[in-house]
Every structure is written in structure tokens, then in C-alpha cells.
Amino acid sequence: MVQTKLLQDLFFDGIQDAMIIIRVGEQGDYYYEMINHKAYELTGLSEENLGDKLTEKVPGISRVFVLDKFDEIVHTKQPYSFTMGFPQPNKETIALHVTLQPIELQESNFILVHARQMDYIEPAESQFWLDDQNLELSRQRYRSLFENNADAIFSLDLDGNFLEVNKAFEVLSGYKKCELIGNSAFSYIERKLQQILKKHFIKTIRGDAQVFELTVPVKSTVKKELHVTMTPLVIEEGFVGIYVIMKDVSEQRKAERELRESEERFRMIAESSHDLITLLDHDGNILYASPSYEFILGIHPDEYVGQSLLYNIHEEDKNKIISEFIRSINENVPITLEFKQRHTEKGWLWFELQGKPIFDVSGGFLHMVVVTREISERKKYEEKLRTLAYQDPLTNLPNRRYFQDRLSERLAEARRQDHSNFAVIMVDMDNLKELNDQYGHDFGDEALRVFSRRILNSLRSDDQVARLGGDEFIILLSHVKSKKDCVDVVKRLHNNIRKPIKIKGVTLTLTASMGLTMPKTLTFTEEEMIKQADKALYQAKQSGKNTYEVLLTADEEI
């Protein structure tokens, strides 16, 4: 407790009277809080008693009398004094004048037991006697508490001169104890700070404890930020000294400033960024959403705060986001994801998420920083590239690569079902070289485009045609049961292709040679199927063009 620490700091070796601090508990109990040097000499309280609750074995004071007076003082908040005789270890009895002084520090109550040695009094004149049998002097305990305290502690007289300093103050100030004792504390402080400290000093000796912070240069010229507590000690209604506790908070304040600066930089970046910047807690709830949410998604960022990270995320992306979020925290690794998120007016847009978990120095999860960027245009471009990779630029039909993938899928399906119901037709446009030579390549390209459209218009919706290159095309017929079904398609193709057309004022008739194959064995690969169809095409062209041939993938009469 802060209050307990303040009271402990009041006890210094320079105090000549015996003093004991009793802490008043919340339930009306009393606890030993601190004993000064002189009190250890007079009492048998041991270091084990510090912090203990007062029991029936109350060392040093008659139980009934003391507890009664303690209750009275807590209630009235008025001091109480009495005289007493106290037997010493050498069996002599000394006279003490004892004052019980109530003290309230930061909403906690204490009782200061102040005992001052007097000339001898008759035992009959004292109000009660201290029992010394269970008491043991403990000077080393108090001295250790004072000297080894991590905070800098010193005492001043009413003129501001040093009475005592501990080791921590020597380290903090850069001065040795012998350089300080008896000298004015203000002489070690630069002039501009003297006025501030004297103001607090005067208020303290008037009975008003002071708590404040200041920055001071120490002997090494290094500046320290200090949290200072000045506390007066009242003895017999008079102030006898000032006790000062100085805590070096330089590193703490530096860390706080760095944190504020970091937060300010983050705020500036977040507010000016065109990306979505989000902070998530351990449960995946949104702690912060940057202003960019409004112009990127059309929704005010306040609507997102408190929502799940899955808010407005496409259903098909939610599971992978949750899975990666958990993995990132458990393994302390950054994550990158692509997903779709809803815009109020534009519908579903593509985004790329980059998330990084942040942990404190002890390894505890603080939050996850997520930066999200819209990538809808990039996805469109990637889709366009994929299309180009599978598309013939002249006819806009699929290319060989695409056809091989589809044929491979169809063969795999046929093997699973142990049944095939498809065929492959290789188609060659007749006389393309002659058209290019006579009318030019632009004319030939337009003829190829017409040729490809007529093939496409002759097929069913589930059939597939692709351009292999030059004047060669290939067709995948679906759901054909016999060679007759395939031949019917070939004839329809011939009829549609042969219809007269006019290109750049020239009327002509296009024709085609075709080779057809049907897999009667499922051991063939897609390459072997294409070679079989190409072989059939070659035979058709050898027969004089504008015709077709059929080759099966097993020995069978054609």
C-alpha cells in the first residue's frame, strides 16, 4: 500500500524518542506497521511482529487499556497522552511519557505511539506498566528498512538542513552522506527550482503533506524526473521535522512519453491512410477502426468498433479468417489473407489483409494490428491474365492449354465411372494458306474468326471447342453414346461451315477436314487422345479435304 510505505518512510535513526506506528485495519483491527530505532531499544518487539495483527499477547502495553484507547482515538480523532513505568532488561524501570497520535494518510488511518523518556516517577503515578517479557530489541530490522529502501529518503529540520539520508538518496543525488548532513537541501538545487521546493517545504511544515513531481539535474548533470512526497511529523502538537521520499520515475515517464508519441504516430498514420487499419482483441473483436472505413466501405468506423472481425465478410471467407487469426496468435506469426467484404453500394469487393499480433514484454497478447487494402482491380487483372493464359487472342476461343485441362478432367471422370461418353474431333480449315497468299493475312484472320464462330454455333452448350494454332481447332463432344452421334455432329459442322460468306467484298465458301476419335479404352492419356484425333484428321486430308475420318482407341471395325 502507498500509505504503508509513506508511514515507513517517517522513521529515521535521528529520532531520539521511541515511536511505533499502528495501522488501523478495515475491520477495526490493529497491526504493527513500523518501529523506529529508539523503540527497538525500549521494547522487545522482534522483526517477526511487523505486519502482525495485535493479539492477546500485546507486547509492551496492557491489552485492555490500549485497545480501548485505540478505539477511542479512531472514533474521536484526538490524541491521548499518559505516563508509564517501563522495566529494562537490567531490571531497572524507566519513566516514559506516551502520546497516542491519530494520523490519516491518503484515506488510511494509523496511530503513532510516541514514547519520550522522563525523570523517574513512582509506579503508582503511571497509568499502567509495560510487560517486557516477550519483547526483544530489533534495531537492525529498522535500520535495514531505512538503508535498503529502493526509494531515496531523507529528513530535514525546520530550517531545511539535512538530518539523515539513506543509500538510495546518495545514489540519486550523486553526493555522499558526509557531504549532505547539516547542510541546506536548497543549496544543492539550481536557483529556478528553489522557489518551487521552498513553497512545498513551507506548506509541509504547516501540516499539509505535499505530493508533486519535478525534474532536477543531479551531480552528474543528468536530469532526473522525481515523484516527491513531503510529510510532516507532529510531536506534542508541534512539527519537529520534514520527511521526504523521492522516487526516480525517469524511465517510467520516458516510457509513457514514448507510448504517447507512438500512439500519436499511429493515430496520424491511421487517419491519413487509405488502407483500413484495425486493432483486434484476443476474441477477434474490433477495438479500433480507422477513418478510412467510411470512404472505402461506405460505413462509419464507429459502426465497426465492438463488432467481430467477421463483420460484413463474405460467408465463404469466414472460416479461413478465423483459422488464420487463431494460428497467428498461437504461433506469434504474421498472416496475409485475401477475402471479400461488403460495400454499402458497390457490393462485394476484394481485399488483402495483413495482420500481426502484438505481445507485451511478459508474452501476454495485447492486440492484433490489421492493415487491409482493397485489391478489386488487382483481382480483375489477375483474372484477365488467367483468361489470357487460357484464351486464343485471335478467335477468343480457349487455347490448347485450356482444352488439355478439360480433357484431362473428362478422362478422370470417365475412369471413376468406368464408362466414357465423349469424343474428340480435330478440325482443320481447308485452304487457309491460299487465302492468305491471295488476299492477305488480315483477310485470312477474318476467315478464321468466321470459321471459329460457325464451329461454336454448331455445338451444344456443354461441348467445348479450342484453337490449337494456325488453322487447327479441336472439339470435345460431351454425352455422346455412339459413333453415329459423333458423325451427326460432324455432318452438322460441315453443313454450317460450307455456307457462303462475304469478307471484304469477296464471297467464298469455307470447308473443313475433320478427324474424330472415341475412347473405347480408358488407359489412354489426353495427349494420346489428341494424337489419335490428329491421325484421323491426317487421313481425312489425304482423302481430298472437306471430309472426315473416324478412329477408335481400340481395335474395332470403322
UniProtKB/TrEMBL annotation:
SMART domains on file: GGDEF (SM00267), PAC (SM00086), PAS (SM00091)
InterPro entries per UniProt: Biofilm_reg_signaling (IPR052155), GGDEF_dom (IPR000160), PAC (IPR001610), PAS (IPR000014), PAS-assoc_C (IPR000700), PAS_fold (IPR013767)
Residues covered by the PAS domain: 138-208, 262-332
Signal sequence, renumbered to the chain: none
Residue ranges occupied by any GGDEF domain in the UniProt entry: 420-553
Matching PROSITE patterns: GGDEF, PAC, PAS
Transmembrane segments: none
PAC domain mapped to chain residues: 210-261, 335-387
Domain of life where this protein originates: Bacteria
Protein name as it appears in the record: Sensor domain-containing diguanylate cyclase
The organism of origin for this protein: Allobacillus halotolerans
Upper lineage: Bacteria, Bacillati, Bacillota, Bacilli, Bacillales
